[in-house]
Design goal:
Two copies of one chain form a homodimer. Chain A is mostly helical. The first copy, chain A, has a domain of about 90 residues. Chain A is about 65% helix and about 5% strand. A three-stranded mixed β-sheet of chain A has the order 1-3-2. In chain A, strand 2 and strand 3 form a beta hairpin. In chain A, helix 14 packs across helix 16 and helix 16 crosses helix 20. Chain A starts with a helix and ends with a helix. Chains A and B meet through helix 1 and helix 2 of A and helix 1 and helix 2 of B.
């Protein structure tokens, strides 16, 4: 069938171009000399143009039409056509003029944001954010979904809706806020300051590399480097993780590496026969984040994990953790403390940071709130959810680059990741009842294999919600995460 | 003028895609994990396809037609249109089926070559080379030049012809062969074995980096790394050099780094206002090689250069060069010795290796010789030119990958580089009469500036031969190189 072959040829070209972009982006963050930025920007802009041309090419649309009218497509081809159509529809529906205008506005806004944040100057940033919000509303409108915010969500979490999110997130908030109050009032308290002792970078690098390898990350099919902002990129046989080392704050690199390792295992675990096809890639941003969070928090902060690795950690930094028992270390890496900055937040408060952003950005898109009122709303919600208030906008509404970059509908995937992770983990414990024993002997590959088979290899054959239902037998719910957080609070704070 | 703007937009897209290819190739050689090869091959194949589509797109052809009919184009735009047309004509004239067939044949031939070379098994390689030669003849035919070999040369050295090469190369051979005989009979002999003492890699790395920086290579606009086969890639603000270290053979990394540094300075020295335009890049492969050879041989093996750097070299390797006077070291790095392998050849015999390959490949393309007779011809010419004979085909006709890769018309640019370098150097000495004093005080930037102004900044506004005439007032000639080699033979061998 010629249309089928032509479709796969074109779809794989589109995939290859996107991978080329990723490789150049990795190089830009990790290897590129300081003056190379302008040239690299030209290359990436041209690749983006070519990619857009390939996706919107009428010939590609005709191939999709033909295949959609074909009765005897197998399930795999159906999924590929569905994903290609979704991708193409988004590209075709947004007028090129709007794309260009929004790209330019975001580029300018990010420069203004970089100056405004350290000066806590929301007034300078406000007109730029207003423009981006207006253009983002136009974009959502063009995407022609029943709900504008849903149209934005769909880019990162296909099939998820604002209404569904609101139910789950409200449930979550209703239980997180009281839990946090209880934790703040607890008399037993861990001592996280022991994580601020001096841990030399070389020791951290060797230890992190060891754990990532134990997780089953294949360094013959990937790399592990340093960058200012840690990330994972690439896929299957060339997956690259980065981290950064803070000598006086062990969790930064340690849990950062485990987190990126979780992303990396997902990409290495895709089906090698399908990874270049439209439904062969990772399922959604939420599922991707579930893999990093599962490893970082549910494995990496568990007592069973540290039964195995704490003696090795002490050996890696001779004398530094002298007299610190395993239990004290484990409590320290699980300390909960409301703080102003999302990226530094613990497992409990992190979700509240996300819920706040979801509330505000969905209100902005629906015009229920105006940009000018954002700082006040932000501070009010911080008080409400976390019990603390930012002393200035730099540590408040201005802290994240996401909105300046035009990313609306993206924040929720961070909390979805935590929810899916806990739900998958409960299922894993049901299927592997001796999981703690497995972890205590450092057999992390058993976890990897479970995730490979249940999640990774399926790519985006199912939506995130279908995958969740299939793997756990239940739709997405806040229950598993809350059970996990309650249990941890009980262990750490004696609640 | 709209056609003009559209032309430059498209030409710069083509440039950006080519640069993206280079960046991915650098990554492949220097950074990519071992298993990443297949994915990278897909990405590079797709980029090559897209690049070919952009170059052969009828719209681009129409833009060129329009601009060629425009009376009031300035010289710069004329040069850009001329270069774009040259590039497009090559792409349009070769039938896609022939491109695909030749690419596949070369890919297969290179795999066979890799097995055949260590086994000296020419018989296994022969049918593959026969196929490549036949397809290359077809390609040359399609390019529709008066002479088939000229059509091949044109890709690497625009405007150069087989006839012109033959005159210069015959002249060169007529003087190199007797010079080599004299050198072999000389009673004074340098001792190159002192270069086989142990020079630790770290010391070599620091010393090479120092020299490359002294040459004026900007490491904020480039990198200096290690790879199995040294090369330079990228342009202007992102130029990457590689080298490799042999602890028991100092010249490998040392002259390798200076050589690549010469290529790198050329790329960094292009006109920043024009580098993305068709006539903004490097002039030709021969001119490129002239820059690397000028630095490697005419600067880097000069006595004046080592007056400055020999004391630093001795400091970099304490004790290793104890008791070796400057003159003995300088003689050692200028030792001449016929050898079987081109890449290990000295300044005199290197050119004879190239002349031999030019003779054979031009004969192959013109069907004056058949592939089956190649080993015999090779060995006969080695005896004739260099006075030695390969004990087997692995060290003879099978030693280079070039023909397996379909590179015909490429070898001559190596010798052209040496010729242009010597001719430029004579001119530089005329304009900078105190050059030796400049070099002895390590003021390498003066050389860089001279090359920047005379050669680099002009890109490919002129052909190589026009550039040579403009810079030196003379057409290409073997005289300057022979004067240089005669003088060096006199100093080193007392001839």
């Amino acid at each position: 069938m010629d249309a089928r072959k032509a479709f796969y040829d074109r779809a794989r070209q589109i995939f290859d171009l996107a991978q080329a972009q990723q490789a150049l982006e990795w190089d830009q963050e990790v290897m590129m000399p300081p003056k190379g930025g302008t040239q690299r920007a030209h290359q990436l802009a041209t690749l983006a143009t070519v990619l857009h041309e390939k996706v919107t090419d009428p010939f590609y649309g005709e191939l999709l039409d033909t295949l959609e009218d074909t009765a005897d497509l197998d399930g795999r081809a159906c999924a590929d056509v569905r994903e290609a159509r979704r991708n193409r529809d988004r590209a075709v529906r947004i007028p090129p003029k709007l794309v260009a205008e929004r790209t330019e506005a975001c580029s300018l806004a990010q420069m203004v944001w970089m100056e405004a944040r350290p000066k806590s100057d929301f007034a300078a940033f406000r007109p730029h954010l207003e423009k981006i919000v207006a253009l983002t509303r136009d974009m959502a409108e063009a995407l022609d979904a029943p709900n504008r915010y849903d149209a934005l969500l769909d880019e990162y979490e296909p099939g998820m809706t604002e209404a569904r999110l609101r139910i789950v997130f409200n449930d979550l908030r209703g239980r997180l806020v009281p839990l946090l109050k209880d934790i703040r009032g607890a008399s037993r308290r861990p001592d996280p300051t022991l994580l601020t002792r001096r841990f030399p970078s070389e020791g951290q690098e060797a230890f992190c590399r060891r754990i990532v390898m134990d997780m089953g990350f294949d360094l013959e099919a990937g790399r592990f480097d340093v960058s200012a902002h840690p990330f994972t990129n690439g896929t299957l046989a060339d997956v690259r993780l980065t981290t950064r080392y803070q000598e006086n704050w062990l969790p930064c690199a340690l849990f950062g590496a485990i987190h990126e390792g979780g992303h990396g295992l997902y990409e290495q675990g895709l089906d090698p026969e399908r990874y270049r096809d439209p439904a062969g890639g990772a399922c959604s941003m939420g599922i991707h984040e579930s893999q990093s969070r599962l490893w970082e928090n549910l494995i990496g902060r568990s007592l069973a994990f540290w039964c195995r690795y704490y003696p090795m950690l002490r050996d890696a930094f001779p004398g530094v953790l002298e007299g610190v028992p395993l239990e004290a270390f484990h409590a320290a890496v699980n300390a909960v403390q409301p703080s102003l900055i999302r990226t530094e937040a613990d497992e409990v408060t992190y979700n509240l940071h996300i819920l706040l952003r979801f509330d505000l950005e969905s209100d902005l898109i629906a015009q229920r709130v105006e940009v000018k009122d954002l700082p006040e709303r932000w501070n009010h919600k911080m008080k409400d959810y976390l019990g603390i208030e930012p002393p200035n906008d730099g540590q408040g509404v201005l802290q994240d680059i996401h909105w300046a970059a035009g990313l609306f509908g993206y924040f929720p995937t961070y909390a979805l990741g935590n929810l899916y992770a806990a739900q998958f983990m409960e299922q894993m414990r049901t299927e592997l009842p001796d999981l703690d024993a497995i972890l205590s002997r450092g057999d992390l590959r058993t976890v990897k294999t479970w995730l490979n088979e249940r999640i990774h290899v399926h790519g985006r054959f199912w939506t995130a919600q279908e995958l969740c239902q299939r793997v756990t037998g239940q739709p997405l719910s806040a229950e598993p995460l809350m059970r996990h957080l309650d249990a941890k609070a009980s262990a750490t704070y004696g609640l």
